[in-house]
Amino acid sequence: MVILVDKDTRVIVQGITGKEGSFHTKLMLEYGTKIVAGVTPGKGGQEVHGVPVYDTVEEAVKNHGADASIVFVPARFAPDAVYEAVDAGIKVIVVITEHIPVHDTMRFVNYAKSKGSVIIGPNCPGIIAPGRTKIGIMPVTPFRPGNVAIISRSGTLTYEVAAAMTREGIGQSVAIGIGGDPIVGLDFVEALEMLEKDPETKAVVMIGEIGGDMEERVAAMYREGRFTKPIVAYIAGRTAPPGKRMGHAGAIISMGTGAYQDKVNALQKAGIPVAEMPYDIPRLLKELL
């Protein structure tokens, strides 16, 4: 069992005829992802890397069936693409697009939840179950099958930590880049609720960053015994000054919340070790496993 996706997940690519959609469709196909169709309005009837293209998600689902979609649609059209996927019954929607206005994200995330769909992102690298499937833009070489999950607000750190783990013989059950925006679909707590039930996941690496309160909510969850597997955390942004956004739209210390040390203190108080540097994570994992 792997959460959200597996080797049989049937995937639709929204925005498949664009530069990014076409490029990453090829890479996902090479990894073995079951991409059954693509969607670009007005370009139905074409093929991209042998994948048939439809004008609507509804047509694609009707002809091929699908469990998941990945959205490469430009920001101004991306919310409509998400609504279309939800209404077509897609249950996992990975939104790669960045620069979507926060209020638009709030509306489509709430709509998806009301319909039982899970949004990963926006502004995220996606999800990979190593050796099974990849619905995202992450490079595949850092990842190896294993029993430690990675959940992360940072795409690049996800790859770097996975590579460090793999070098030390620690593989990954799944890696999810939840996105770096202030509002995201799947958050850390929701991902941990799923991983708690996954027998293939023995531990979790959580890569957080300054801003927001997601890491503090994980600390409360762990302290209350609502997640029982070992967690190792890393928080990016230790030297960021208050009031200045660092990298991600959600990575900002403001109104006295979201500071690096507050997150570290909350996690350590709950019994979660926090790595000072990403390359410390494999050593901390080995001490817990």
Could you give the topology of this structure?
Layout: E1 10-14, H1 19-31, E2 34-39, E3 47-48, E4 51-54, H2 57-64, E5 68-71, H3 78-87, E6 92-95, H4 102-114, E7 118-120, E8 126-129, E9 133-136, E10 145-152, H5 155-167, E11 172-177, H6 188-196, E12 203-209, H7 214-223, E13 231-236, H8 260-269, E14 274-275, H9 281-288
Parallel strand pairs: 1-2, 1-5, 2-4, 5-6, 6-7, 10-11, 10-12, 12-13, 13-14
Antiparallel strand pairs: 3-4, 8-9, 8-11
Helix pairs in contact: 3-4, 7-8
Could you explain how this protein is built, in words?
With 289 residues, this protein is of the alpha/beta class. It is built from nine helices and 14 strands. Strands 3-4-2-1-5-6-7 form a seven-stranded mixed beta sheet, with helices on both faces. A seven-stranded mixed beta sheet has the order 9-8-11-10-12-13-14, sandwiched between helices. Helix 4 links the parallel strand 6 and strand 7 (118-120). Helix 3 (78-87) packs parallel to helix 4 and helix 7 packs parallel to helix 8. The longest helix is centred in the first third of the chain and has 13 residues, at 19-31. The chain is globular, with a radius of gyration of 18 Å. The model has no long low-confidence stretch (mean pLDDT 93).
Tell me how many strands there are. Answer: 14
What are the secondary-structure elements, in order, as H or E?
Answer: EHEEEHEHEHEEEEHEHEHEHEH
Q: Give the strand order of the largest sheet, numbering strands 1, 2, ... along the chain.
A: 3-4-2-1-5-6-7
Strand content: 15-25%
> Helical amount among residues, as a percent range?
25-40%
Assembly level: single chain
Distance between the termini: 20 Å
Major sheet description: 7 strands, mixed
Structural class based on helices, strands and sheet pairing: alpha/beta
Poorly predicted runs of 5 or more residues: none
**How many whole angstroms does the radius of gyration measure?**
18 Å
Shape type: globular
Helix count equals: 9
Mean pLDDT: 93
